[in-house]
C-alpha cells in the first residue's frame, strides 16, 4: 500500500508550497489527499489561485495518515492554527509517533504554539524569532528523526521538502529517482 499523505489547506495557504509538495509525492506514487479546513472544498490561496480539495478536513479526520503536511502563507497558517480538528489530528499523529511537517510560516504559527515544534527545525526566515532555540534553523529542510517532524523554509524549498517526505516514507532510492526526474540540484 502506498504511503498516505494529508495536505491540509486553508484560505490563504501558499499554493506553490502545497502543490509542489504534492507533485513530488505523487511522482513517488504516494496517495495524497488535499483537505480544506473550512466548510468549502475550494480554497483561495495566498496568490489568488483557487485550489479544489479532495475533501473537507472533517470528512477525513478519523483516518490515519502516514504523514500530515502543512503549507505556509501567513493567512493560511493562521487559519490552519485555528482549526481544532487539525490540531487534534496533529497531536494524535505526534502521540502515535507518526510523521508530520510544515513549511514556511506553518512551523512557527501552527506547531510552536501547540507544542508540536521539534528540537531541530526551521521556518520562513522572518518567523525564525518565533522558534528561538531551535537547532538547524538555517537549513532549508530539517528532519528531526526523534520527533518525526520535517520542516522547511518556503516556496523555493517546497520540492526538496516533498522529496524529503518521500525519502522518510518510501526510502532514498525512490526519493533519488523523483529528484532526478524533477531535475533537482539539491
TrEMBL record:
Pfam families attached to this UniProt entry: DJ-1_PfpI (PF01965)
Q: Which SUPFAM superfamilies match?
A: Class I glutamine amidotransferase-like (SSF52317)
Q: Which Gene3D superfamilies match?
A: 3.40.50.880
Q: Does the keyword Metal-binding apply?
A: no
Q: Does the keyword NAD apply?
A: no
Q: Keywords assigned by UniProt?
A: Repeat
Q: Which InterPro entries match?
A: Class_I_gatase-like, DJ-1, DJ-1/PfpI, Prot/Nucl_acid_deglycase
Q: Which domain of life is it from?
A: Eukaryota
Question: Which region is the signal sequence?
Answer: none
| Biological processes per GO annotation | glyoxal metabolic process
Domain named DJ-1/PfpI: residues: 4-167
Q: Looking at the UniProt record for this protein, which Gene Ontology cellular component terms does it annotate, in alphabetical order?
A: cytoplasm
Per its UniProt record, what PANTHER family does this chain match?
A: PARKINSON DISEASE PROTEIN 7 HOMOLOG, PROTEIN/NUCLEIC ACID DEGLYCASE DJ-1-RELATED
| Name of the featured protein | DJ-1/PfpI domain-containing protein
Organism of origin is Rhodosorus marinus
Amino acid at each position: 500500500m502506498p504511503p498516505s499523505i494529508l495536505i491540509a489547506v486553508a484560505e490563504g495557504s501558499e499554493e506553490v508550497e502545497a502543490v509542489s509538495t504534492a507533485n513530488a509525492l505523487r511522482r513517488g506514487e504516494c496517495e495524497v489527499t488535499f483537505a480544506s479546513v473550512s466548510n468549502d472544498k475550494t480554497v483561495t490561496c495566498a496568490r489568488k489561485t483557487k485550489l479544489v480539495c479532495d475533501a473537507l478536513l472533517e470528512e477525513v479526520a478519523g483516518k490515519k495518515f502516514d504523514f500530515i503536511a502543512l503549507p505556509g502563507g501567513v493567512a493560511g497558517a493562521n487559519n490552519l492554527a485555528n482549526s481544532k480538528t487539525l490540531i487534534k489530528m496533529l497531536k494524535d499523529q505526534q502521540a502515535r509517533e507518526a510523521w508530520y511537517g510544515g513549511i514556511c510560516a506553518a512551523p512557527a504559527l501552527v506547531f510552536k504554539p501547540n507544542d508540536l515544534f521539534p528540537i531541530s527545525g526551521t521556518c520562513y526566515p522572518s518567523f525564525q524569532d518565533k522558534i528561538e532555540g531551535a537547532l538547524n534553523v538555517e537549513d532549508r529542510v530539517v528532519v528531526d528523526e526523534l520527533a518525526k517532524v520535517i520542516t522547511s523554509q518556503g516556496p523555493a524549498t517546497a520540492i526538496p521538502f516533498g522529496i524529503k517526505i518521500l525519502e522518510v516514507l518510501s526510502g532514498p532510492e525512490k526519493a533519488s529517482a523523483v529528484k532526478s526526474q524533477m531535475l533537482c540540484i539539491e
